[in-house]
Design goal:
Chain lengths: ~350, ~325
């Protein structure tokens, strides 16, 4: 270690590099989703919401899990399955609505899942996945195998009744769940301090944990090791049967909330970030870009002597190649047969 | 004046707000127009005090609107997608719809809830639904579902003036459609249907996006010598039954067309009502056009196969005419 200030949080060098690799893969995937709008107009027509800016938070959180643990997420859901090892080609195919997609083209970008790897799916309805994480944790408690569930959601979602009702139940029943509130400073076109009483009062959103007598911590979501540390403590507490924790992970969403919405035929695109288009906060946005967690972690690893230039370049090249493959195979993949539209409404089609 | 469905609604809101200071608009992102730019410009004209961006708290927003309506305001609340209305349903169904009744007439809720539904934008299962039949099942609510800009504006004006809670169900595919409107849009009374195309062979009672699909179907069928009368109920509750019966008594055939799932849809209510009231006038059982009994898929081909369109109306007309 050349940088004496660098604290690997007990992680061996190969795991540190692995965290970085996952961050790069997520970023590359999101870039390719975004580029699809320009390079292959019409291929994505519905909604997409990107996780760029949240890579460190996602990777640091997932690193605190062990096999058997589970998680739920929102429509902004591409990062978690990548960190869990899902097939990125099938994910891209799902986003393109293809039969080979992770959900056969039924769900799309907002509704990825990979139950085999512990990803229990998403809700496109803000906040409504939080009870599912709570319920999965209840099932884990009943199984008694010490599995833990992470529930990911946004700052805006903490204004839903489902959030408050879930936290109360989880604390009351001491459920093995960790609520990861990704505070990305915006809820669509609104700033957090315009929609959240804690934020408006200058307090962290983790303050909400107090109302439910559970620990609430705020962590720099741009630092995967800080996130890993906070999540490890919360996961250990949950595994030990001591109940839930609310972790507020502070990130900055680097793309606009989602792609533009337009009637059929009108090309879609990624609009300018709301910080600029709505608030004129050019400098704030530029500062967020300068603090981009991906190059930031690379620089930290390089300075610490954990990552060399050549391996860093090959991680980037591998990710580029992997996601190029994801795009190519997804573009070439078949669409589902219209007759398939009636499948999966029930386990067995009613006679 | 050429405008769009979305602009016409925004203009109707502005007109109502200018005329009555108790009219306020609240909802998520309304100060920047929302995802479909309907409320664009209102915050600039009327200020943040009357055009409120809310947290993502549909239950509380709806409840707050009810309380405000009972205390002298005329709130126009926006639920961004009808799919999110589920979160506000207790407030709408158990509170707003019943306050007047439970209070023996003392507590009215002069509130308007605007929302929008419909598929066709690859929004997948949670952002594309048509859920108006749920609302029609609740006594105490009025439900309007305009298909044209002129009706969207005119019905909104009447809804704001109405002493009871009115739900306005708009449609995301219709928002950008252009239409010629008079300089001054007159209020459209709630509960009055409009005949959009006369015809003597069959009545197609169509709602929202299915109105333009039905007009297209009527054009196609006219080429075969079948004259279709297209009637838009505009209001679902209270339904203009006399207008429907008047048409059916002349054409002796009825097709009801909506985008919502046919199973348990409002078309079933209309079919049953008309069959009872005009049994002797009908030459064939009422036909219904609606979506299949399934959630809405993302993939383009699957969504297209799911969506009822002009071809579905043509097929239903052929069935009802036995040709
Ligand atoms: C119940 C509900 N209300 C409104 C919306 C529309 N909507 C989608 S995302 C979003 C903002 C959510 O913000 P946040 O929870 O902070 O998550 P982020 O998108 O920032 O990750 C809104 C209002 C929705 N999908 N569901
Ligand atoms: Mg947010």
């Amino acid at each position: 270690m050349t940088d004496p200030a660098f604290d690997p949080r007990g992680l061996a060098p190969d795991r540190l590099v692995e965290l970085y690799r996952q961050m790069v893969r997520i970023r590359e995937f999101e870039e390719r989703v975004k580029r699809t709008f320009a390079e292959h107009p019409g291929v994505i027509r519905g909604h997409t919401h990107l996780a760029d800016g949240a890579e460190a938070s996602i990777v640091g959180s997932v690193a605190a899990l062990r096999p058997g643990d589970q998680l739920t997420a929102t429509y902004r859901c591409h990062g978690y399955p990548i960190a869990l090892g899902s097939d990125t080609a099938a994910m891209m195919a799902e986003i393109y609505g293809r039969a080979t997609g992770t959900c056969g083209g039924y769900g799309g970008s907002m509704h990825l899942c990979d139950p085999e790897r512990g990803f229990l799916g998403t809700s496109g309805i803000v906040g409504q996945g939080i009870p599912h994480a709570t319920g999965a944790a209840w099932a884990a408690q009943i199984r008694g195998d010490r599995d833990v569930v992470l529930g990911f959601f946004g700052d805006g979602a903490s204004k839903q009744g489902a959030f408050h009702e879930s936290l109360n139940i989880a604390a009351l029943w001491k459920l093995p769940v960790v609520y990861v509130l990704e505070n990305n400073s915006f809820s669509a076109g609104v700033r957090t301090e315009q929609e959240d009483a804690n934020a408006a009062a200058g307090e962290p959103l983790a303050t909400k944990a107090k109302a439910y007598s559970m620990p609430g911590v705020t962590v720099d979501g741009g630092d995967p090791l800080a996130v890993y540390d906070a999540l490890s403590a919360a996961v250990a507490r949950a595994r030990a049967g001591e109940g839930p924790t609310l972790v507020e992970s502070r990130v900055y969403r680097l793309s606009a909330h989602g792609n533009s919405i337009a009637p059929p035929g009108v090309p879609l695109h990624y609009p300018e970030h709301e910080a600029i288009s709505r608030f004129g906060a050019v400098e704030e946005y530029e500062a967020a870009k300068r603090g981009d967690p991906v190059p930031r972690f690379r620089a930290a690893l390089v300075a610490a002597g954990v990552l060399g230039d050549a391996p860093a370049r090959s991680i980037a090249a591998d990710a580029a190649e992997e996601m190029q493959h994801a795009v190519d195979t997804a573009l070439a993949a078949p669409f589902p047969e219209p007759a398939a539209a009636l499948e999966h409404v029930y386990a067995e089609a009613p006679a | 004046m050429i405008t769009t469905y979305a602009r016409a609604i925004g203009a109707a809101l502005a007109t109502a707000m200018r005329a009555d200071p108790s009219v306020v608009v609240l909802g998520e992102d309304v100060s920047v127009g929302g995802p479909f730019t309907v409320t664009t410009g209102l915050a600039e004209e009327f200020g943040a005090g009357r055009v409120l961006d809310t947290p993502i708290s549909e239950a509380a927003i709806c409840g707050v609107a009810i309380g405000a309506a009972q205390s002298g305001l005329r709130p126009v609340l926006e639920i961004m997608y009808v799919d999110f209305l589920t979160l506000a349903l207790d407030q709408l169904v158990n509170q707003a719809a019943k306050a007047r009744f439970m209070s023996g007439g003392q507590l009215g809720v002069p509130m308007v809830l605007r929302t929008q539904g419909g598929a066709g934008q690859r929004g997948a299962a949670q952002h594309s639904q048509s859920l108006e039949s749920w609302l029609c099942h609740v006594p105490g609510l009025k439900v309007v579902m305009p298909s044209r800009a002129v009706d969207a504006a005119g019905l909104l004006a009447s809804a704001i003036a109405d002493p009871d809670p009115v739900v306005v169900v708009e449609n995301k595919i219709l928002y950008p459609r252009r239409e010629q409107l008079p300089e001054v849009v007159e209020p459209v009374p709630i509960g009055v249907a409009a005949t959009l195309r006369p015809g003597r062979d069959v009545t197609v009672l169509a709602m929202s996006r299915m109105v333009s699909e039905s007009l297209d179907a009527a054009d196609q069928l006219a080429a075969e010598g079948v004259e279709v009368e297209v009637v838009d109920p505009r209001t679902l509750v209270p339904l203009d039954l006399p207008a429907v019966l008047d048409s059916v008594r002349r054409t002796h055939h009825l097709v009801v067309a909506h985008e919502a799932v046919a199973h348990g849809g409002f078309g079933a209510e209309i079919a049953a009502t008309v069959q009872k009231a005009a049994f002797d006038d009908l030459d064939a059982p009422v036909e219904r056009v609606g979506a299949p009994f399934q959630p809405i898929p993302l993939s383009p081909g699957l969504e297209d196969a799911y969506l009822p369109d002009a071809a579905s109306v043509v097929a239903a007309v052929r069935r009802v005419l036995g040709r």
